[in-house]
Automatic annotation (TrEMBL):
Protein name (database record): Homoserine kinase
Organism: Streptomyces orinoci (Streptoverticillium orinoci)
Domain of life (superkingdom): Bacteria
Domain GHMP kinase C-terminal stretches: 213-280
Gene name linked to the record: thrB
Keywords of the record: Amino-acid biosynthesis, ATP-binding, Cytoplasm, Kinase, Nucleotide-binding, Threonine biosynthesis, Transferase
Entry EC number(s): 2.7.1.39
Length: 304
Protein backbone atom coordinates (compact mmCIF):
# COMPACT_ATOMS: atom_id res chain seq x y z
CA UNK A 1 0.00 0.00 0.00
CA UNK A 2 1.32 3.47 -0.90
CA UNK A 3 2.19 5.72 2.03
CA UNK A 4 0.54 9.10 2.54
CA UNK A 5 1.33 12.23 0.53
CA UNK A 6 2.76 15.28 2.29
CA UNK A 7 2.27 19.02 1.90
CA UNK A 8 5.19 20.83 0.29
CA UNK A 9 4.57 23.93 2.41
CA UNK A 10 5.97 24.17 5.93
CA UNK A 11 3.60 24.30 8.94
CA UNK A 12 4.10 26.38 12.05
CA UNK A 13 2.81 24.95 15.35
CA UNK A 14 2.52 26.88 18.60
CA UNK A 15 2.27 24.85 21.81
CA UNK A 16 1.69 26.10 25.37
CA UNK A 17 3.29 25.44 28.73
CA UNK A 18 0.96 23.70 31.18
CA UNK A 19 0.67 23.33 34.91
CA UNK A 20 -0.62 19.91 35.94
CA UNK A 21 -2.24 18.75 39.20
CA UNK A 22 -2.98 22.27 40.57
CA UNK A 23 -2.56 20.72 44.02
CA UNK A 24 -5.04 17.89 44.58
CA UNK A 25 -5.82 16.94 40.96
CA UNK A 26 -2.87 14.57 40.56
CA UNK A 27 -2.64 13.20 36.99
CA UNK A 28 -6.08 14.69 36.27
CA UNK A 29 -6.28 18.51 36.27
CA UNK A 30 -4.30 20.81 33.99
CA UNK A 31 -4.10 24.51 33.16
CA UNK A 32 -2.80 25.89 29.88
CA UNK A 33 -0.48 28.89 30.21
CA UNK A 34 0.43 31.77 27.91
CA UNK A 35 4.06 30.76 27.43
CA UNK A 36 4.81 29.01 24.13
CA UNK A 37 7.25 26.94 22.13
CA UNK A 38 7.04 27.42 18.33
CA UNK A 39 8.14 24.90 15.78
CA UNK A 40 8.21 25.08 11.99
CA UNK A 41 8.13 21.67 10.32
CA UNK A 42 8.85 21.10 6.62
CA UNK A 43 8.92 17.85 4.72
CA UNK A 44 12.21 17.71 2.77
CA UNK A 45 13.77 15.48 0.11
CA UNK A 46 16.07 13.68 2.58
CA UNK A 47 17.75 13.71 5.98
CA UNK A 48 16.86 15.29 9.30
CA UNK A 49 17.85 18.84 10.08
CA UNK A 50 17.03 20.46 13.45
CA UNK A 51 17.61 24.08 14.31
CA UNK A 52 17.04 25.03 17.99
CA UNK A 53 16.95 28.47 19.61
CA UNK A 54 16.24 29.14 23.29
CA UNK A 55 15.72 26.45 25.94
CA UNK A 56 17.84 23.37 25.30
CA UNK A 57 19.76 24.92 22.39
CA UNK A 58 23.03 23.78 23.98
CA UNK A 59 21.91 20.40 25.26
CA UNK A 60 19.14 18.81 23.17
CA UNK A 61 20.06 16.12 20.63
CA UNK A 62 19.85 17.01 16.91
CA UNK A 63 18.92 13.48 15.82
CA UNK A 64 16.21 10.83 16.18
CA UNK A 65 16.52 11.03 20.00
CA UNK A 66 14.98 14.54 20.02
CA UNK A 67 11.57 14.25 21.72
CA UNK A 68 9.77 16.25 19.04
CA UNK A 69 11.23 13.97 16.35
CA UNK A 70 10.17 10.87 18.31
CA UNK A 71 6.65 12.26 18.51
CA UNK A 72 6.62 13.15 14.77
CA UNK A 73 7.90 9.67 13.84
CA UNK A 74 5.33 7.83 15.97
CA UNK A 75 2.54 9.95 14.50
CA UNK A 76 3.73 9.49 10.89
CA UNK A 77 3.75 5.72 11.47
CA UNK A 78 0.14 5.90 12.63
CA UNK A 79 -0.76 8.05 9.62
CA UNK A 80 0.64 5.45 7.25
CA UNK A 81 4.29 6.30 6.57
CA UNK A 82 7.35 8.52 7.02
CA UNK A 83 8.36 11.45 4.81
CA UNK A 84 11.76 11.14 3.08
CA UNK A 85 13.26 14.07 4.98
CA UNK A 86 12.37 16.56 7.71
CA UNK A 87 13.47 20.06 8.63
CA UNK A 88 12.57 21.53 12.02
CA UNK A 89 13.10 25.03 13.33
CA UNK A 90 12.38 25.20 17.08
CA UNK A 91 11.98 28.37 19.15
CA UNK A 92 11.86 27.05 22.73
CA UNK A 93 10.64 29.24 25.59
CA UNK A 94 9.22 26.71 28.08
CA UNK A 95 11.89 25.85 30.66
CA UNK A 96 12.82 22.17 30.78
CA UNK A 97 12.33 19.85 33.76
CA UNK A 98 10.70 22.58 35.86
CA UNK A 99 7.11 21.28 36.04
CA UNK A 100 5.75 23.46 33.24
CA UNK A 101 5.02 20.67 30.78
CA UNK A 102 7.90 21.12 28.31
CA UNK A 103 7.87 17.43 27.39
CA UNK A 104 4.09 17.49 26.87
CA UNK A 105 4.52 20.56 24.66
CA UNK A 106 7.16 18.83 22.50
CA UNK A 107 5.00 15.71 22.20
CA UNK A 108 1.82 17.63 21.32
CA UNK A 109 3.67 19.84 18.82
CA UNK A 110 5.01 16.72 17.08
CA UNK A 111 1.60 15.07 16.83
CA UNK A 112 -0.17 18.21 15.61
CA UNK A 113 2.61 19.02 13.11
CA UNK A 114 2.72 15.48 11.68
CA UNK A 115 -1.04 15.55 11.21
CA UNK A 116 -0.90 18.99 9.57
CA UNK A 117 1.82 18.15 7.02
CA UNK A 118 0.15 14.86 6.03
CA UNK A 119 -2.51 15.24 3.36
CA UNK A 120 -5.70 13.77 4.83
CA UNK A 121 -4.03 13.70 8.29
CA UNK A 122 -7.03 15.08 10.17
CA UNK A 123 -9.30 12.37 8.73
CA UNK A 124 -6.88 9.62 9.76
CA UNK A 125 -6.11 10.95 13.26
CA UNK A 126 -8.97 12.75 15.01
CA UNK A 127 -8.67 14.87 18.15
CA UNK A 128 -9.55 12.00 20.50
CA UNK A 129 -6.84 9.84 18.91
CA UNK A 130 -4.32 12.68 19.30
CA UNK A 131 -5.03 12.82 23.05
CA UNK A 132 -4.63 9.05 23.35
CA UNK A 133 -1.35 9.09 21.47
CA UNK A 134 0.02 12.08 23.42
CA UNK A 135 -0.87 10.36 26.71
CA UNK A 136 0.88 7.16 25.63
CA UNK A 137 4.03 9.13 24.81
CA UNK A 138 3.93 11.31 27.97
CA UNK A 139 2.82 8.57 30.39
CA UNK A 140 0.01 10.56 32.07
CA UNK A 141 -2.86 12.57 30.58
CA UNK A 142 -3.04 15.81 32.58
CA UNK A 143 -0.43 18.00 30.82
CA UNK A 144 -1.15 16.77 27.31
CA UNK A 145 -4.91 17.34 27.74
CA UNK A 146 -4.36 20.99 28.71
CA UNK A 147 -1.65 21.37 26.07
CA UNK A 148 -3.84 20.09 23.23
CA UNK A 149 -7.14 21.67 24.31
CA UNK A 150 -6.08 24.87 26.12
CA UNK A 151 -8.04 26.27 29.08
CA UNK A 152 -8.57 24.24 32.24
CA UNK A 153 -8.86 20.50 31.67
CA UNK A 154 -9.96 17.41 33.49
CA UNK A 155 -8.49 14.18 32.13
CA UNK A 156 -9.09 10.57 33.05
CA UNK A 157 -8.25 7.08 31.82
CA UNK A 158 -11.09 4.92 30.51
CA UNK A 159 -10.14 1.27 29.94
CA UNK A 160 -6.57 2.36 29.13
CA UNK A 161 -7.58 5.25 26.85
CA UNK A 162 -7.21 8.92 27.81
CA UNK A 163 -10.27 11.14 27.79
CA UNK A 164 -10.58 14.81 28.70
CA UNK A 165 -13.00 17.69 28.99
CA UNK A 166 -12.07 21.34 28.63
CA UNK A 167 -13.49 24.13 30.76
CA UNK A 168 -12.94 27.88 30.70
CA UNK A 169 -11.10 29.03 33.82
CA UNK A 170 -12.52 32.16 35.49
CA UNK A 171 -10.83 35.02 33.63
CA UNK A 172 -10.00 36.83 36.88
CA UNK A 173 -7.42 34.12 37.72
CA UNK A 174 -3.81 35.19 37.07
CA UNK A 175 -1.12 32.47 37.19
CA UNK A 176 2.19 33.57 38.70
CA UNK A 177 5.08 31.10 38.32
CA UNK A 178 8.24 30.97 40.43
CA UNK A 179 10.84 29.03 38.44
CA UNK A 180 14.03 27.91 40.21
CA UNK A 181 17.30 27.58 38.32
CA UNK A 182 17.83 23.92 39.19
CA UNK A 183 15.86 21.29 37.21
CA UNK A 184 14.17 18.18 38.59
CA UNK A 185 13.00 15.68 35.99
CA UNK A 186 9.42 14.44 36.14
CA UNK A 187 10.81 10.89 36.26
CA UNK A 188 12.77 11.69 39.44
CA UNK A 189 9.79 13.44 41.06
CA UNK A 190 7.43 10.56 40.21
CA UNK A 191 9.95 8.12 41.65
CA UNK A 192 9.48 9.71 45.11
CA UNK A 193 5.78 8.87 45.30
CA UNK A 194 4.66 6.02 47.56
CA UNK A 195 2.82 3.02 46.08
CA UNK A 196 -0.07 3.46 48.52
CA UNK A 197 -1.44 6.39 50.54
CA UNK A 198 -3.62 6.53 53.67
CA UNK A 199 -7.34 6.37 52.91
CA UNK A 200 -7.89 9.58 54.85
CA UNK A 201 -5.48 11.43 52.51
CA UNK A 202 -7.13 10.04 49.38
CA UNK A 203 -10.53 11.08 50.74
CA UNK A 204 -9.27 14.59 51.53
CA UNK A 205 -7.88 14.98 48.00
CA UNK A 206 -11.09 13.77 46.37
CA UNK A 207 -13.06 16.52 48.13
CA UNK A 208 -10.51 19.25 47.33
CA UNK A 209 -10.18 18.22 43.67
CA UNK A 210 -13.95 18.38 43.24
CA UNK A 211 -14.00 21.78 44.93
CA UNK A 212 -11.17 22.93 42.67
CA UNK A 213 -13.32 22.56 39.55
CA UNK A 214 -15.84 24.99 41.08
CA UNK A 215 -13.06 27.32 42.31
CA UNK A 216 -11.22 27.41 38.95
CA UNK A 217 -14.33 28.05 36.89
CA UNK A 218 -16.72 30.07 39.05
CA UNK A 219 -15.55 30.86 42.55
CA UNK A 220 -11.83 31.75 42.67
CA UNK A 221 -12.28 32.91 46.28
CA UNK A 222 -12.27 29.18 47.16
CA UNK A 223 -8.88 28.53 45.53
CA UNK A 224 -6.84 28.45 48.74
CA UNK A 225 -8.98 25.69 50.26
CA UNK A 226 -9.40 23.94 46.91
CA UNK A 227 -5.65 23.64 46.17
CA UNK A 228 -4.80 21.70 49.36
CA UNK A 229 -3.01 18.45 48.45
CA UNK A 230 -1.96 15.37 50.43
CA UNK A 231 -1.03 12.96 47.64
CA UNK A 232 2.20 14.19 46.06
CA UNK A 233 3.71 17.56 47.05
CA UNK A 234 5.12 16.64 50.48
CA UNK A 235 6.48 13.33 49.17
CA UNK A 236 8.44 15.27 46.57
CA UNK A 237 9.97 17.69 49.07
CA UNK A 238 13.33 15.83 49.31
CA UNK A 239 13.98 16.67 45.63
CA UNK A 240 12.75 20.29 45.93
CA UNK A 241 12.82 21.46 49.57
CA UNK A 242 12.95 25.18 48.61
CA UNK A 243 9.88 24.83 46.39
CA UNK A 244 7.79 23.15 49.06
CA UNK A 245 8.98 25.74 51.62
CA UNK A 246 8.03 28.62 49.28
CA UNK A 247 4.64 27.06 48.59
CA UNK A 248 3.99 26.68 52.33
CA UNK A 249 5.09 30.27 53.01
CA UNK A 250 2.76 31.64 50.32
CA UNK A 251 -0.14 29.49 51.54
CA UNK A 252 0.40 30.68 55.11
CA UNK A 253 -0.07 34.21 53.69
CA UNK A 254 -3.42 33.18 52.17
CA UNK A 255 -2.12 32.72 48.59
CA UNK A 256 -3.28 29.67 46.61
CA UNK A 257 0.15 28.24 45.81
CA UNK A 258 0.99 24.73 44.62
CA UNK A 259 3.91 22.80 43.19
CA UNK A 260 3.46 23.09 39.42
CA UNK A 261 3.25 19.62 37.84
CA UNK A 262 6.02 17.44 39.22
CA UNK A 263 7.92 20.61 40.27
CA UNK A 264 10.13 22.32 41.13
CA UNK A 265 8.30 25.46 39.86
CA UNK A 266 5.77 26.93 42.29
CA UNK A 267 2.49 28.22 40.83
CA UNK A 268 0.29 30.80 42.56
CA UNK A 269 -3.25 31.46 41.34
CA UNK A 270 -4.11 35.04 42.28
CA UNK A 271 -6.27 38.04 41.39
CA UNK A 272 -5.02 40.55 38.86
CA UNK A 273 -4.66 43.30 41.49
CA UNK A 274 -2.37 41.09 43.65
CA UNK A 275 -0.26 39.47 40.91
CA UNK A 276 2.64 41.94 40.75
CA UNK A 277 2.98 42.06 44.52
CA UNK A 278 2.87 38.24 44.80
CA UNK A 279 5.51 37.93 42.08
CA UNK A 280 7.90 39.94 44.26
CA UNK A 281 7.44 37.68 47.33
CA UNK A 282 9.83 34.86 46.45
CA UNK A 283 13.03 36.87 46.41
CA UNK A 284 16.49 35.78 45.18
CA UNK A 285 16.92 32.55 43.25
CA UNK A 286 13.51 32.46 41.57
CA UNK A 287 12.47 33.75 38.16
CA UNK A 288 8.98 35.06 38.95
CA UNK A 289 6.57 35.76 36.09
CA UNK A 290 2.90 36.50 35.80
CA UNK A 291 1.46 34.67 32.82
CA UNK A 292 -1.73 34.86 30.82
CA UNK A 293 -4.19 31.98 30.63
CA UNK A 294 -4.03 30.16 27.30
CA UNK A 295 -7.38 29.38 25.71
CA UNK A 296 -6.47 27.71 22.43
CA UNK A 297 -3.99 24.91 23.20
CA UNK A 298 -1.67 23.59 20.51
CA UNK A 299 -2.46 25.35 17.23
CA UNK A 300 -1.34 25.45 13.63
CA UNK A 301 -0.55 29.08 12.81
CA UNK A 302 0.13 30.87 9.55
CA UNK A 303 3.83 31.05 8.71
CA UNK A 304 5.23 34.40 9.83
N1 LIG B 1 11.15 21.53 23.06
C1 LIG B 1 11.74 20.37 23.34
N2 LIG B 1 12.43 19.70 22.38
C2 LIG B 1 13.00 18.51 22.65
N3 LIG B 1 12.97 17.91 23.84
C3 LIG B 1 12.30 18.51 24.82
C4 LIG B 1 11.65 19.75 24.62
N4 LIG B 1 11.07 20.11 25.78
C5 LIG B 1 11.35 19.13 26.66
N5 LIG B 1 12.09 18.18 26.10
C6 LIG B 1 12.60 16.95 26.76
O1 LIG B 1 11.83 16.72 27.92
C7 LIG B 1 12.66 16.81 29.10
C8 LIG B 1 11.91 17.43 30.25
O2 LIG B 1 10.81 16.63 30.53
P1 LIG B 1 10.27 16.44 32.01
O3 LIG B 1 11.33 15.89 32.89
O4 LIG B 1 9.00 15.65 31.87
O5 LIG B 1 9.97 17.90 32.52
P2 LIG B 1 8.83 18.96 32.17
O6 LIG B 1 8.15 19.18 33.47
O7 LIG B 1 9.54 20.17 31.67
O8 LIG B 1 7.93 18.33 31.14
C9 LIG B 1 13.85 17.65 28.65
O9 LIG B 1 14.97 17.38 29.45
C10 LIG B 1 14.03 17.17 27.22
O10 LIG B 1 14.68 15.93 27.17
N1 LIG C 1 0.82 14.59 37.12
C1 LIG C 1 2.20 14.65 36.73
C2 LIG C 1 2.47 16.00 36.09
C3 LIG C 1 3.88 16.19 35.59
O1 LIG C 1 3.98 17.48 35.03
P1 LIG C 1 5.36 18.06 34.49
O2 LIG C 1 5.03 19.41 33.96
O3 LIG C 1 6.28 18.10 35.66
O4 LIG C 1 5.83 17.11 33.43
C4 LIG C 1 3.08 14.49 37.98
O5 LIG C 1 2.78 15.15 38.97
O6 LIG C 1 4.01 13.67 37.93
Amino acid sequence: MAGPAFRAAAVRVRTPATSANLGPGFDALGLSLGLYDDVVVRVAESGLHIDIAGEGADSLPRDEAHLLVRSLRTTFDLLGGQPRGLELVCANRIPHARGLGSSAAAICAGIVAARAVTIGGAERLDDAAMLELATELEGHPDNVAACLLGGFTLAWMDAGAARAIRMDPADSIVPVVFVPSRPVSTETARGLLPRTVPHVDAAANAGRAALLVEAMTRRPELLLAATEDRLHQEYRAPAMPESVALMQRLRADGIAAVVSGAGPTVLALVEDSAADKVARLAGEGWAANRLALDAGGTSVLPLA
